[in-house]
Amino acid sequence: MLSLYVPGDSVVHRVRAGLKLAVLAALGVGLFLGDSPVLMTGALLLTLVVGVAVAHLPWLALAVQVRPVWLWLALLFGFHLLATDLRTGTVAVLRLLALLVAAAVVTATTRVTAMVAVIEWLASPLRMVGVRPDRIGLVLAMTLRFIPLVADKAARIREAQAARGGSRVRLGMAVPLLIEVLRMATTVGEALDARGADDVPVRRGGRRARLAA
Amino acid sequence: MRWGRRAAGGADDAVATGAGIELRGVRHAFGERVVLDGVTLTLTEHRVGVIGGNGSGKSTLARLLNGLVVPTSGTVRVDGLDTRTQVRAVRRRVGFVFQDPDAQIVHPTVAEDLAFGPHNQGLDDAEVAHRVEEMLDRYGLAGHRDHPAHLLSGGQKQLLAIAGVLAMRPQRIVFDEPTTLLDLANTRRVARVIDELEQDVVVVTHHLDLLDGFDRVLVVEDGQVVADGAPAETVPWYVARMG
């Protein structure tokens, strides 16, 4: 999700994030209600057509998101061959593939901010108990922003330890990484203050969603 | 040029209120450690530089100017607004660019991060979008609109950090060592950006070249302003002092 968005101006890109997520959820429920191989194949082909022909996504953008689970799909298929039958295994794999491709299409056509805005909207009832949904959204966005940064810092610490003949034990990097992250957190806190995070208007989420849509 | 350790008071006391940044008898300590002591200044110039050794107190001085740090004693006023009691108004007037842009960029993609400050100011969608596009074009980031911020080069990240502050249209900008992490080409690029700004700027730096054409340079040492004047006088004085 950190860098999986593929900029574009297709119909799929322009559809609101909330609607895309709702369709994705409905597709998930629908696929688990059915058990026909034809239905599953149709769903998979449909999601591919939407992704490649309508949203103009490159095959690679979809393949990148499916690749990490190939092994699990193969294992699942093998398990069904042993425990149930070919048809059940085929349906299970096609169902998951269709869902994966659909999720990949949503991810590749929706900006992170738009996703976060949906979560803010979903969290809006929590205002009644004093929770600020915009804060939840900001935390989520910042989490996505800082994951690669913390990974970079971890890599630098590993390199520094290796350069000084450090062992391969990963636990040795926990303390310096924690110190680095805490140091960075102090500056990030100052940056949030300097950029007016305290001034966030209550209805900020909706406006951000429109900018990002 | 004035040099030597200056006590609270002095020539700057002549300006009590009005436009500019005023520090009166400012002392700041982190626990037992005093980092600034007896600083009294009035900054009205377009471009002011702050130089000094590591740990001299210059970054704390910079943070005082937009209320990121509140003085232990004394007052800091921006256009008459007290940073202790009117900090939000002060921060709308004074933007702050940090040394490490990675700590300043808080959203995953370039355009989203540019929109963060204007959104916080409560601007409407159209105005936020306008400012985002303006900054993307002005700093050559239009081609990176939807790129993840962590994939930008160091120079591009610093430009994004500066653009993020400028999108809020502050009247003054404080830069805390904006070129320390940059190579020569990007240092010159950021210097040009600062040079072209209409806003009044205060730049804390170790890169003395950055101060060419500045109106005033302060030298900070052991928590006090030990020299204050035109760069042609203060910079050579500082270089000689550093040996």
CATH architect. name of chain B? 3-Layer(aba) Sandwich
- CATH topology title of chain B: Rossmann fold
Instruction: Tell me, briefly, the overall form of chain B.
Output: globular
- CATH class wording of chain B: Alpha Beta
The structure class of chain B reads alpha/beta
- The ordered H/E elements of chain A are HHHHHHHHHH
Q: Which whole number gives the mean pLDDT of chain A? A: 85
Tally of alpha and pi helices of chain A: 10
Low-confidence stretches of chain A: 202-213
Shape descriptor of chain A:
globular
Q: Quickly count the domains of chain B.
A: 1
Please, what is the CATH homologous superfamily of chain B? Answer: P-loop containing nucleotide triphosphate hydrolases
Q: Proportion of β residues of chain B? A: 25-35%
Strand order within the widest sheet of chain B? 1-11-10-4-9-8-7
Q: Alpha-carbon distance between the termini of chain B?
A: 20 Å
What is the count of β-strands of chain A?
0
Give helix % range of chain B: 25-40%
Largest sheet of chain B: 7 strands, mixed
Q: Could you tell me how far the N terminus lies from the C terminus of chain A, measured between alpha carbons in angstroms?
A: 16 Å
